[in-house]
Specification:
- By secondary structure, this protein is α/β, with parallel strands linked by helices.
- The chain contains 2 helices and 4 strands; from the N terminus they run βαββαβ.
- Helix 1 links the parallel strand 1 and strand 2.
- It is globular.
- The protein starts with a strand and ends in a 6-residue tail after the last strand.
- 27% of the residues are buried.
């Protein structure tokens, strides 16, 4: 089974990518910030890793053991 990390999974595109990967049988891990609104991925069978792309340690933890990375996170200002 393929294990994939999705960044930006709490957003519109990221949650769609996450749902598609789950539908295709992937094990999905998502990197979420501590203050992220997680309603877009509520009820999904994903492994959540709390962290931030700007924190290299949390990024290393999130990617550990993954076969693929789908980077769809963005910074909106």
């Amino acid at each position: 089974m393929i294990r994939a990390l999705v960044t930006g999974a709490t957003g519109f595109i990221g949650s769609s990518v996450t749902r598609l990967l789950l539908k295709q049988g992937y094990q999905v891990r998502v990197l979420v910030r501590p203050d992220s609104d997680q309603r877009a991925i509520a009820g999904l069978d994903v492994q959540r890793v709390v962290g931030d792309l700007r924190d290299i340690e949390s990024l290393h933890a999130a990617v550990q053991g993954c076969d693929q990375v789908y980077h769809v996170a963005a910074l909106y200002t």
